[in-house]
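Q: Could you predict the 3D structure of glutathione transferase?
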Amino acid sequence: MSQPIILYSHASGPNPWKVAIILEELGLKYETKFLEFPHGVKGKEFTAKNPNGRVPCIEDPNTGITLWESGAIIEYLIENYDKSGKLTYSSFPEKYHLKQWLFFQVSGQGPYFGQAAWFNNFHPEKLPSAIERYGKEIDRVTMVLNNALEGKEYLVGDKCTYADLSFVTWAAFAPVAAGPHKIDWEAYPNYKAWLDRLTSRPAVKKVLEDKQKAGAKGH
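A: Sure. Here are the predicted structure tokens for glutathione transferase:
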């Protein structure tokens, strides 16, 4: 790879940083371009790249592709740049179990945590039923992961993979998303130990630090 991948991002959104973790883990050159909400992501220049007007989106000048949706981007990066299998498996059934967990992240953890954050922090009126529902969904998703990790260090196989890493940024966002709903972390010992392992990885630590710095700069 000779040219950096362009990553369109925003400081507060967990999804672009999920992609950044994979880029860092694979040691790929990339450049982050921060967009403002709402005008930056809804403007004609960006919606020409992503008609959905959301981040992340990448442009890879090495292959000529423009791609949006974090799950699709992660699969693209793994298939094209993880030739050594650092973060993946090519064996059966592991390669399908990886997809299973990635799809659970993008269809379960992300949307439910995102709705919790919306109703706790941004919705113009407080709706106790919605706040309660999505608080319980945070608990449910966390318990699914906790149970799946019983007797294991990682979700698939015996190493950290893109499936594990895809959960990190939303997991880190959970206390903000939950609002007044108290998450009893002691009820999820497998999950907590797993998250500690993931967030101690140098690439993950760097990305979480970069996210904090970007937020402080007002990106």
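Q: Anything worth pointing out?
A: The mean pLDDT is 94.
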